[in-house]
Write a structure and sequence with these properties.
single chain; alpha/beta; 10 strands; five-stranded mixed sheet; three-stranded parallel sheet; 9 helices
Length: 272
């Protein structure tokens, strides 16, 4: 039921810096044989394979991409996602099939890396990139951070052909990062919270609504971190999308009076 929002986000971000690249998505589930998925990837003989890696798919993605590298030794493999927010030296040294990983937000890195994929001498300028050079030395460019202004300037992910709207719900991101630092979560390690302007959020929802979507899962880590913004969005949901459903992640301590009133005013069953 889930489709990664990273793919359309990275696709729209890469277009300005590397518009000459042709993109293809290969998707599967954890139960798919890795050899079958590897063959599907290798079928188009890609110059680059990129994947988002997190706790639940790490073993499966690694099993597929080890096979891809064996089939296509010249193919460059770039990885990103929560699994690479720490020190990546040990990983790069133990997994020689990985050409580079991105720590942090992928949007500032994906375009510049694709534009210089055959010129590693340019890689020290790419934020968040970690890689092993031809001599085996590891390099670390810190944390890639997508500033709020740069994020708002990017095309919306739903404008990408890789935004899947055939699932039970559409994923929507209005805030990146989190003010909390829960031990089980990595969201606070991707930088301070950054917000999309409310008019941009309204425009994105309107576009998705016109496409027939009625179920939205906001992937904001703490939807009610900013009470004033929370109230404004709940009003938007109530007044413009009374026939829609919204899945929200909340911190139970952030229930100011105005937020409680907005919750009480929501149409029955609208919020999950």
């Amino acid at each position: 039921s889930h489709a990664s929002l990273a793919l359309p986000c990275l696709h729209v971000a890469a277009q300005a810096a590397a518009p000459e690249w042709e993109w293809r998505a290969v998707a599967g589930v954890i139960a798919d044989p890795p050899g079958v998925l590897a063959a599907q990837v290798a079928e188009s003989a890609p110059d680059v394979v990129a994947a988002t890696v997190y706790l639940f798919n790490r073993a499966a993605v690694f099993a597929v991409l080890r096979r891809v590298k064996a089939l296509l030794p010249a193919c460059r493999i770039l990885l990103g996602g929560p699994e690479f927010l720490g020190d990546n030296r040990a990983l790069l040294e133990s997994e020689p099939w990985i050409d580079a990983v991105v720590r942090g937000d992928g949007e500032p890195a994906i375009g510049p890396w694709l534009a210089t994929v055959d010129r590693p001498a340019a890689w020290p300028a790419i934020p968040g990139l970690c890689w092993r050079d031809a001599a085996g030395a590891c390099h670390d460019n810190g944390l890639a951070l997508l500033a709020a202004e740069a994020w708002a300037a990017l095309p919306a992910p739903h404008t990408s052909p890789f935004f899947f709207s055939d699932r039970p719900f559409a994923q929507v991101e209005t805030v990146r990062g989190c003010p909390h630092a829960c031990a089980f979560c990595t969201s606070a390690r991707t930088g301070p919270p950054r917000q999309l302007p409310l008019d941009r959020v309204a425009a994105d929802l309107a576009a998705l609504y016109r496409r027939g979507l009625r179920d939205f899962r906001l992937i904001d880590r703490t939807f009610n971190a900013d009470p004033r913004r929370t109230v404004a969005l709940l009003r938007l949901f109530r007044e413009a999308y009374a026939d829609c459903h919204f899945h929200l992640e909340w911190h139970p301590a952030g229930l100011a009076a105005a937020v409680r009133d907005a919750l009480q005013a929501a149409p029955a069953g609208q919020l999950h």
